[in-house]
């Protein structure tokens, strides 16, 4: 069984507190990364198969406060297929989570985004599926400086004359509301396959992305790969990251971050001597994708040597890199702290005060077994009709008319060879109900409030006859129903 382990250290890497998230004896839970928020809390994407919530891994998103206490958690129920929360970002009015959703309607992978407000209430869910590719995988999500949301990953295409699937870097661009704006698959020439993993933004909306590629014969093995793109996903520059070794057999890079104005740090992992040995570490590159420095962090046999699991830049421009190491039968977590020259950072002797904002102190060890009472059934969302149903009763009515509103609004569209299914939860804050007399036109309007699911109208003052009730969202009619006044 897997469970989550979150550690907070001081500036020298000494443990201050730790959190065990999940229940090792009860169910399996896996957590992908920890992202600091503007209120100094932590958001965590992952998955679990906790009963009675789930019988297969389902996406899970958590928020901890600055003291490491659970604020909220939300999960997404799916029917008998494995789905995962893979990344999460903070946006001005909440958070956006990225999910790998292996849905029922397609036998291929799909990409889903979900929006949470600041207290974890779900605002919308968007599911994206390509018409021109298969096996889409979203690896990371980025909030761009223009407010748009960009997903980096890969999708498989079938090239003319080649019956095999060939993965290619994939970019999906969405508005702050999750609406699809652009979709692009990079066809990197002279490669058997290539993939994208993570993107960061440079000035003037230029982006650098990490990944890997496998070169066509006679060099048929993977290389770490970095590419540079414009704001509209046009390739500006790309380069294989060639490690100086004649024995490199395979390689990839997953993570990239900006160290200085024109200097970037990224991880690399390569297999040597026909996959017998593995080497992983960090690289410093410039804006022309030229390697400036290289640091090996892990080296050994392929079965026991880990890749770099994540990298981050501290406020004082130091580099943190996390990895793992087998010692005997046990797998240990390893944290490296390096300076900008990829040398081990010096030990700090100045004392620091930690967790000063935690009233009453902070628990040094805490076991968190989340009880997530709120969930969204994604498969049920996929089965919702395109036109939401409004229910009115009684019908015919004589005095009081009750209107029952749908839980979600549904929009399905196709553009850029991509299908997008949008499920909006708190649509009521931008919606209203209108009553029309079939003969006389509009006679009454009621503005809805957030999460309002029922509306009461006084129908006793209406003349007998046929009426039309309209649900209007953002000044657009989305559903209608007729009723009769006796």
Number of domains: 2
Number of strands: 38
> Unreliable segments (pLDDT under 50, ≥5 consecutive)?
none
Structural class: mainly beta
Reported by name, the CATH topology of the largest domain is: Neuraminidase
Portion of residues in beta strands equals over 45%
CATH architecture identity of the largest domain: 6 Propeller
- Give the count of helical stretches: 1
Q: Roughly what percent helix?
A: under 10%
Q: Which word captures the global form?
A: globular
* CATH class wording of the largest domain: Mainly Beta
Question: What is the rounded distance between the termini?
Answer: 63 Å
From the alpha carbons, calculate the radius of gyration and give it in angstroms: 26 Å
Topology, element by element:
Elements: E1 4-9, E2 15-21, E3 29-31, E4 35-36, E5 42-48, E6 58-64, E7 70-77, E8 84-91, E9 94-101, E10 110-116, E11 122-130, E12 134-143, E13 149-158, E14 165-174, E15 180-185, E16 191-202, E17 206-215, E18 222-229, E19 235-240, E20 248-252, E21 256-260, E22 263-272, E23 277-286, E24 291-301, E25 310-313, E26 319-327, E27 330-338, E28 365-368, E29 375-377, H1 378-382, E30 391-393, E31 400-404, E32 409-415, E33 418-424, E34 431-437, E35 441-447, E36 454-458, E37 465-473, E38 476-485
Parallel strand pairs: 2-28, 7-29
Antiparallel strand pairs: 1-2, 3-5, 4-5, 5-6, 6-7, 8-9, 9-10, 10-11, 11-33, 12-13, 13-14, 14-15, 16-17, 17-18, 18-19, 20-22, 21-22, 22-23, 23-24, 25-26, 26-27, 30-31, 31-36, 32-33, 34-35, 34-37, 37-38
Characterise the protein shown here.
By secondary structure, the chain is mostly beta strands. The chain has 2 domains: 4-368, Neuraminidase (6 Propeller), CATH 2.120.10; 389-406 and 428-485, Immunoglobulin-like. It has one helix spanning 378-382; strands spanning 4-9, 15-21, 29-31, 35-36, 42-48, 58-64, 70-77, 84-91, 94-101, 110-116, 122-130, 134-143, 149-158, 165-174, 180-185, 191-202, 206-215, 222-229, 235-240, 248-252, 256-260, 263-272, 277-286, 291-301, 310-313, 319-327, 330-338, 365-368, 375-377, 391-393, 400-404, 409-415, 418-424, 431-437, 441-447, 454-458, 465-473, 476-485. The strands form 9 sheets. Strands 3, 4, 5, 6, 7 and 29 form a 6-stranded mixed β-sheet that branches. It has a 6-stranded antiparallel β-sheet with strand order 8-9-10-11-33-32. A hairpin with a 5-residue loop joins β18 and β19 (235-240). It is globular. The model has no long low-confidence stretch (mean pLDDT 85).
């Amino acid at each position: 069984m897997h469970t989550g382990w979150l550690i907070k250290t001081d500036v020298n890497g000494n443990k201050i507190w730790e959190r065990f998230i999940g229940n090792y004896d009860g169910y399996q839970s896996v957590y992908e990364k920890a992202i600091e928020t503007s209120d100094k809390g932590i958001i965590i994407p992952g998955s679990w198969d906790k009963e009675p919530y789930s019988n297969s891994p389902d996406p899970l998103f958590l928020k901890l406060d600055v003291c490491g206490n659970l604020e909220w958690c939300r999960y997404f129920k799916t029917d008998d297929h494995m789905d995962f929360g893979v990344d999460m970002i903070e946006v001005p009015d909440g958070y956006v989570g990225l999910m790998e959703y292996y849905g029922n309607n397609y036998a291929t992978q799909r990409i889903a985004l979900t929006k949470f407000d600041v207290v974890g209430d779900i605002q919308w869910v968007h599911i994206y599926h390509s018409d021109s590719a298969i096996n889409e995988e979203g690896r990371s999500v980025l909030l761009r400086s223009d407010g748009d949301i960009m997903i980096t990953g890969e999708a498989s295409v079938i090239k003319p004359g080649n019956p095999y699937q060939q993965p290619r870097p994939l970019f999906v661009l969405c508005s702050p509301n999750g609406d699809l704006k652009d979709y692009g698959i990079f066809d990197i020439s002279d490669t058997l396959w290539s993939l994208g993993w993570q993107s960061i933004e440079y000035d003037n909306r230029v982006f650098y992305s990490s990944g890997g590629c496998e070169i066509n014969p006679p060099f048929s093995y993977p290389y770490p790969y970095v590419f540079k793109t414009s704001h509209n996903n046009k390739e500006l520059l790309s380069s294989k990251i060639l490690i100086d070794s004649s024995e490199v057999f395979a390689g990839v890079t997953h993570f990239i971050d900006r160290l200085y104005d024109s200097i970037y740090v990224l991880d690399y992992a390569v297999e040597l001597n026909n996959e017998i040995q593995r080497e992983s570490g960090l690289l410093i590159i410039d804006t022309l994708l030229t390697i400036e420095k290289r640091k090996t962090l892990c080296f050994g046999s392929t079965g026991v040597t880990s890749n770099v699991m994540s990298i981050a830049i501290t406020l004082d421009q130091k580099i943190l890199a996390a990895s793992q190491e087998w010692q005997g039968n046990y797998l240990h977590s390893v944290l490296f702290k390096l300076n900008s020259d990829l040398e081990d950072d010096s030990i700090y002797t100045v004392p620091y005060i930690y967790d000063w904002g935690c009233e009453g102190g902070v628990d040094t060890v805490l076991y968190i077994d989340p009880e997530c009472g709120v969930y969204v059934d994604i498969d049920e969302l996929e089965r919702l009709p395109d036109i939401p149903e409004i229910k009115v009763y009684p019908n015919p009515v004589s005095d009081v008319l009750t209107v029952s509103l749908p839980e979600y609004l549904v929009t399905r569209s196709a553009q850029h060879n991509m299908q997008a299914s949008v499920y909006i939860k708190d649509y009521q804050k931008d919606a209203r109900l209108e009553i029309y007399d079939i003969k006389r036109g509009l006679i009454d309007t009621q503005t809805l409030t957030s999460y309002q699911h029922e509306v009461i109208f006084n129908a006793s003052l209406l003349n007998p006859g046929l009426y039309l009730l309209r649900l209007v969202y953002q000044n657009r009619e989305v559903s209608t129903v007729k009723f009769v006044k006796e």
